[in-house]
Amino acid sequence: MKKFALAALVAVFLFGSVNTASAMDDKAVWAQGFINVYFQWLNNSDFEKKDAEDDFIAAQRTRMYVDYMSGENLTGVVRFEIDNNWGDGASGGGAGADGIRVEVKNSFIKWTVPDTDLVMTMGIQGVALPSATYGQPVLNNDVAAVVASNKFSDMFTATLFWARLGDTRGNGETLFSSATKSDVTSNPGNADEYDAVGLILPIAFDGGTITPWGVWTTQGKDAAGTTKKSTGQWIGGALKVTAFDPISLGLDVMHGKVSTTPDTSDANGWFAAADVTYKMDMLTASLVGFTSSGNDSSTTDGTEVMPVISNGNGAFAPTTFGTYGDWNMGSSNILTEGPGAQGIGIKLTNLSSMENLTHEINVFYFKGTSKKDAAASLSGGWSNTAVFTKDDSAWEVNFESVYSIYENLSAVLDLSMVDANFSKTAGARTTATSTGASETAYKGAFQIQYNF
Q1: What is the per-residue DSSP string for 164-225?
Q2: Which of 439, 335, 443, 449 has its CA nearest to residue 56?
Q3: How far apart are alpha carbons 441 and 274 in whole angstroms?
């Protein structure tokens, strides 16, 4: 009896394996990811000299991307992220590890409508408005969205998306948990949705691309615990010209407006950035400039700095310390995400001193665009300031090196400094907790990056 049972089990396993293999003939699983181990020394990041400042941190980030493909027209995508701060038990970096820190970064279905060129992407995914320079300050983040993209020709594609940016479900209507009648009674608000609809129209021409875009948002009065409802409109365009190779030109322009009820929180502003790049055999040189609107001195008409929707995956980022940068190169973002400031800089990239070793050098000057008597209570300042005025400025210098140890293993070094000059009588550093201190900020970051 035991022999029969064993034979039956083996037969089921073998035939089951054959059937599974047959069913998987038109399917594939594709996986990739990275593990980055990160060490950083940071001093005076808030431009205040503090002896108690914790200068050194160690951390790591792991991302796993898995695509489940059924033929050419259907794919399911799941992407996980694990961040561990070394020494922090809650994040799994303490003694014993085992912290719960797995995050779902993306989870979506991508499929082609039968007999058409219309591609639908539905789920939690990265949505970014186009940029021809160094990133998009308005919208670049992971969101729950439906994206429809259709390629009409080699020259013209249209992409339309709807993103649900927020829904507190204050009326108790929730799909994946049990809401009781008391939940609805105690929190009756239902104007709690925050939505965005966007249209992107990339057009290719001989020697470049131009991509006009627009986004419209609505936010209910109960969204995010506020008592205001708002509508927003952004329009812009990204121009990339490559016809004069090895010289290329990038240009981003955009304007945004948010209207609220009451109107004291209105926002209305613009942003523009450009770069000219020259590729040579030994290096690539770029001249980068950007400017934007700033606040006036009134506190009753809202802010004149361009409003932002969400840019957690990256904003305007020509450098890795003062601006948003790239986490893989040691970003810190202690200065600006673009709006409310202006600047000019030189980027030297692809410098090579030996085989498998490349360098990048960035030198930038930043200045505020708000009036010197602009109210500190208004939004639009640098990441650790209130309002960045025309009397506030800073220099930033980055030196970055990447050494390829193996094909998929790299060592990255980032050395940066920001020398700030803040007004002591107005603007950015005259808040309740700061008095215009302008200590120079320093950063040294080192990473080992394994991409697989």
Answers
A1: EEEE--TTS--SSSPPPHHHHHH------EEEEEEEE--EEETTEEEEEEEEEEEE-TTGGG
A2: 443
A3: 27
- Cα gap 348→353, rounded to integer Å: 13
| Residue whose structure tokens are 């293999």 | 21
Full-model pTM? 0.86
Distance in angstroms (rounded) separating the CA atoms of residues 432 and 18: 71
The Cα 351–Cα 60 span in angstroms is 27
> Residue type at 400?
E
SS3 of the chain: helix, strand, coil, percent, to 5? 10, 50, 40
Q: For residue 39, how many other CB atoms are within 10 A of its CB?
A: 16
Contact 434, 425 (CB under 8 A): no
Contact assessment for residue 294 and residue 304, using Cβ atoms and an 8 Å cutoff? yes
Question: First-to-last CA distance in the chain?
Answer: 49
> According to the 3-state scheme, what is the secondary structure of 438-450?
CCCEEEEEEEEEE
CA distance 290 to 223: 33
Q: How far is residue 272's CA from residue 267's CA, in Å, rounded to a whole number?
A: 17
What is the pLDDT averaged over residues 335-356? 92
pLDDT at 226 over 50: yes
Q: What is the pLDDT of residues 396-433, one digit of tens each?
A: 999 999 999 999 999 999 999 999 888 776 554 444 34
Lookup: tokens for 68? 């489940």
- Given a contact cutoff of 8 angstroms between Cβ atoms, the answer to whether 443 and 415 are in contact is yes
